[in-house]
Every structure is written in C-alpha cells, then in structure tokens.
Write a structure and sequence with these properties.
It is an enzyme of class 2 (transferase). Its EC number is 2.3.-.-. InterPro entries: Acyl_CoA_acyltransferase (IPR016181), Bact_Acetyltransf (IPR050832), GNAT_dom (IPR000182). The chain is α+β, with helices and mostly antiparallel strands. It has a single domain, classed as 3-Layer(aba) Sandwich (Aminopeptidase). Helix content is 33%, strand content 32%. It contains 5 helices and 7 strands. The chain has a 7-stranded mixed β-sheet with strand order 1-2-3-4-5-7-6, with helices on both faces. Strand 6 and strand 7 form a beta hairpin. The longest helix has 16 residues.
C-alpha cells in the first residue's frame, strides 16, 4: 500500500473531486433515500451549480487525501450556512469531511481535522460549526473528541426528504 498524500486540489482535480463527493455520499447515506431524492441531491450538491461553484469561490477551502493518484477522502470548509444565532461571533463551517469506506480507520480523519482547525484558526474564526446525522453515532463521537458540542437540531434536506441532523459547534477563541 502506498502512502497517503494530503494536498490542496487543483482545478484539474475538480471532476474527480465531484465524483468522490457523489461516491462517498452514496456509500454512506444512499440507502436512506428514494432514488429521485438522492439523484436531485447529488446533482444539486456535486453538479455544475454545486461544488464547482464553491471550488471557484475563495471563501471555500478544500483538502484531499489520495494514494497512488486516487482520491480517497476530502474535506470542504466555508462560510456559515447553518441557521445559528447571530451573536456577533465570527463563524466558519466544516461543510463536508468524507472518506471512502475502504479507507476508514487508516488515519485519514485526524490529519483532515487538523488541517480544518488550522485553516479556521488562520482565518481568525471564533467558532466552527458542522452538522452530523442524528444516527451517525461514530461521527458524533469523533467530533465530540475534538471539542465540538451539540448546540441545536437541523433539518438536512435530501430532495424532499428531511433528515434529523444535529448542529455542533467548537469554540476556537473567546
């Protein structure tokens, strides 16, 4: 097995990054949705008006993990989208951190989270937010181990289906 390389993706990586996004979402959650809801979500999030637009926006940051030239994980950070209180604190959001199932438990999540927290701290953000599915207990535990705390509930829409997600926050600075 080759080493895992972590790097910032380039525009040439965008098609593979969008495909990885689709693949990891389907692997993780695809069984939960009707085909039309899943298809709508995938086109909206990873199609031409989704991830490519965010990729071109300097307010977003991306990181990938790859081995032998194949992407196996990615992380996306950006401006806040979640409906959280406007308390005057600066906020960023961990939008996605997905790893292909075959690569779970191989030491990818830790460097990705370290990068995400470094990015947020370098940007001077006071709080980092994210959502996690209410039944994804493994991810909840991981985020709690990083100091995130549940601060609310969120209806995450996949097509016309609303999932019960939790909103988590990590205070980065007072």
């Amino acid at each position: 097995m080759s080493d895992i390389v972590f790097r910032t993706p380039t525009p040439a990586d965008l098609p593979a990054l969008c495909e990885l996004g689709r693949q990891t979402f389907i692997e993780t959650f695809g069984h939960l949705y009707a085909k039309h809801d899943l298809d709508h979500f995938l086109v909206t999030v990873f199609g031409p008006d989704g991830m490519p637009v965010e990729f071109a926006d300097p307010a977003y940051a991306f990181r990938i993990a790859e081995t032998d030239g194949q992407m196996v994980a990615y992380c996306k950070l950006g401006p806040p989208y979640l409906p959280v209180e406007d308390d005057g604190r600066s906020k960023c959001e961990l939008r996605q951190l997905y790893i292909l199932k075959a690569w779970h438990g191989r030491g990818i999540a830790q460097p990705m989270m370290a990068w995400a927290l470094e990015w947020a701290n370098a940007g001077g953000w006071q709080d980092m937010y994210l959502t996690v599915w209410s039944e994804n207990y493994r991810a909840q535990k991981v985020y709690e181990n990083y100091g995130f705390e549940k601060v609310g509930d969120y209806r995450f829409m996949v097509g016309e289906q609303a999932d019960h997600d939790f909103i988590y926050r990590k205070v980065l600075r007072s």
